[in-house]
Amino acid sequence: MNKIPAPDRLKRTNSGFTLIEILIVIALIGILSTALWSNLIQSIYKGKDARRKQDLSAIAKSLELYYNDNISYPAPPLDFGNPLTHPDDASIVYMAKIPTDPGYPDRNYCYDGGADFYRLYANLEISSDPDVLEVFEACPADGVEYNYLIKSTNLP
């Protein structure tokens, strides 16, 4: 006796993915994207912190040039976002534009000083940075606490 083949609609095929396989793939993608996102955020923070350090270093160099010409540092506050010029001759420019914080455009760095000294403050976002101060210092000019400081060479 010959067997009659079953119609195609009754045959069972094993093509496609099971629900558990799809869920495992989604979970793996989620774990990998979380790890990559975390690394991306850390890289962005490191970049901003490097920029902050460069900015304060550039401001410090400009302040030294200012001091060499005027035998004093400029009185606080510095006009962040605008040029640092000679007090009597605006054509003498020490810095074309005093930089502002790259992460917070509405918040500037802090400058505190007198005729013979200065301190420049910033907040670094990576707390494990070796240059972060152990104790936050409040800038006298604005009362905000900062964790990074550059000061004139004549201060201890």
UniProtKB/TrEMBL annotation:
Membrane listed as a keyword: yes
Gene Ontology biological-process annotations: protein secretion by the type II secretion system
Superkingdom, natural source: Bacteria
Organism expressing this protein natively: Candidatus Gottesmanbacteria bacterium GW2011_GWA2_43_14
SUPFAM superfamilies found in the cross-reference section: Pili subunits (SSF54523)
PROSITE patterns named in the record: PROKAR_NTER_METHYL
Coiled-coil boundaries: none
GO CC terms: type II protein secretion system complex
Name of the protein in its database record: General secretion pathway protein G, general secretion pathway protein G
Annotated transmembrane regions: 20-41
Keywords: Membrane, Methylation, Transmembrane, Transmembrane helix
